[in-house]
Fold this protein.
Amino acid sequence: MAAASAVALLAVACSSGGSTSPRVSRSPAESQSSAPTQTPAGPPQVVWVVRSGAVKVVRVLSPSGGSPRTLVSVPLDATVAGVGGGQIAFLYGDRSLHLYSLGSGGSVAFPTGIAMGEDIFGGAVSPDGRRFAFAVVRSATAGSLRLLDIATGVSTTLRTYSSATVDAPTEWVDTRILAETVVGFSDAGPQAAVAIDPSSGAETASTSIAGAAGTAFSPDGMHVFDTTHSPLGDDADSAGGPGPQQPFNTLREFTIGSTPSTLYSAAHHQLSVFAVSDDGSSAVYYNDSSAGGFAGISLSPQFGLFLIHGTTPLQLTHYGEGGRWDAGAFVDAASAAMARHVGSAEQLVLVGPSHSTPVVLDTVAGGDAPAFVSYSPTS
């Protein structure tokens, strides 16, 4: 799954083209339909979600761009909660969980049982599509990590916390859940990137990411890219306020449990990570200006969309070229599917070293952010 835009942390608080007319899923009072009974084995799919009018449209297509179609449309208050086991999961504003098969479009839905005043953080579907992991913050002194059995709709507590600091799942890879340690009821950013044992909820590895942003995990569950602020004399570029110090002028990479290493750092730059390759050797990020005065940088080799492999960045587009970049996910070792806004449409395009210009894979006329992109090896 993609992790940028990731990524992938979500908190639920109280309170197109080339397709037939989309159906809009409604929220359940009880579980609906039947859950998957076996691990899906369909072909790989790229799934992307984009706002279109009064709904969010979920589109699927092959990694090469073949057979794009609308899978389902969901309400605007639905938030992507994970991709795994050939399914995409959404948490609705009423705190119900909805999962859709990327192959058939079949769905299952459950109430999560989370009360008003409690917050849900994160979400990850197990590789076999049978379980969903999420974190709950009940109060300043109580939180939990939970597993929902997709076959029965029964939620069990895997781990309890004695504060509002919990591990919010972002991905479930093989025998471990990847998560960010977050602080509920707070403006503090993520505190750590962690690996969790799905059988006990115990942390098996952890790296501090306090002060960082835009954490993106590799699909193999080993590597992480993020951005952070380094004291380079550009603090005045940020207006201040809650959250970590900006601008995020430094790009880092690490394996969970190790110390982050700096790949790129420059004053007056604002960096955003979109996607990480399966083995963690490459990432796609955007290099923006944090200082204002954008005139004259449209052809600069320092700004725009980049792919970094090892420590070598490759400029894919110049600053402002190709519209606004919103989300992305790698579809192979060197190419990423990226959502971008151009004119009055949202496009999914393929970028990478072998493409001199972005290749359009799919278009949603009238589409706009928020957008989400992920690659699923099965459907």
